[in-house]
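Changelog-adjacent note: as of this version, every example in the card shows the full chain rather than a window. The one below runs 467 residues end to end.
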Amino acid sequence: MPEKASGPRALLVQPPVYDFALYDLFLHPYGLLRIGAWLEQSGYEVELLDSLDARRPGRADGAGRGRIGRSVVETPAVLRDVPRRYARYGLAPDTLRERIRNSAADVVLLGTGMTYWYEGLAEIAEMLREEMPSAPVIAGGIAATLTPQTVAEAASTDYVVRGDGDASGGASGGASGGASGGTSGPALPKLLASLGLPPLRGPLPANPGLSLQLRSARLRDAAVIRLHEGCRGACSYCASRLITPRFRAGTEQDARERIREATAAGITTFAFYDDALLEDSATLLEPLLEWVVSVHGERRLAFYLPNAVHVERLTSDVARLLYLAGCREVRLGVESLDEGFHARYDRKLRSNAIAQTVRVLTDAGFRGREIAAYVLAGLPGQTADELRGTLGGLARLGCAPYVAEYSPVPGTPLFEAACEVSRYPLRSEPLCHNNSIFPTASRTLTIHDLWRAKAEARVVRLELSTR
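Full-length structure tokens:
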């Protein structure tokens, strides 16, 4: 047995992932690392076990991005009609088991991601029960918030904490005791105290723990930043409000500190994790970018926007500052160029707004594939003609499209409509929420329509890469 530390010790675990595809586009355990910073400031000794810290040899695509090592495994029975190889992504089981065996943690905190990734959670939880039977296991994160019953049953975990784990309580901070996932309980501070562990001091830190991040080779080359928590929008397909019910603005000071700390450690690549980065941009994002340019110079750092930004909020001032600060690619949340789409699902985009935004970005200095847009495919009622029209319109505007398959999320307004059209049991089996299987394919938008659309989008991106 490893020697116990003198103070309380916590083990944070990012589980492996079972899926048809997984690409590391700044896939950082942001919430777990914030909890780690909270524990550290409260006197805990904290370890990080990043099960995804397994790059495929020779396949790194750049700082913060790359392909994760995998091994092909048997496809779950409910997904066997999918003509793709199913795989386990991450460190080998023997490696994980040895890391767990060498830990002397008093408590384990498991991060959860997509609702359909619970197989990796179950695998790591079984290892924890076998190697560390006396340490209580607490699961939290996105899946724990959206599907707490499934997480509790899959991991047979002691507790499931919903929301960000702060002291807010209620639906965004409750804990469920035992595998039943039943009653609502205390948030993380009260839960740790009830387990006889030292209390957490102060509020949940605004930034993740950089010292923890640097212990994973996969996470050392880039840092993620979040200016705001949540989103004021109410898109019927989005889970942002379920995960963070109230929009909470951040501070420029916290963001500056994150950048200062990361650059001091040699990190020069950053990704914004915001769902609504451009909210109140004149009072937060713009001053922050002006500070970046004044301190680090023009385009000395690299910034990415993997979550996309709202088209109509991107002003010429923001575009100019993004370019000067070093933003390498602007991803726009277009979803569709069809006005009927936005009337039905999100009310967030006027038909002429995208053309104006592309002009603004071009005037700021962005070129070719640096101006990109997410296109959402597979929503109930969507047609192949609408999807093709959007791709064609973006190509004419000189905007690089990325087709994103819709993933049905329990609790969102659109989920029941998705259940009605899906060939899969979405209500009872979270594995079927996987966007890789195109769970809401229909006669108006078939899987073959999707494949053609994705191929067309790749051609447009290739053409734009030469500009």
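Structural remarks: Residues 447-464 form the longest helix (18 residues).
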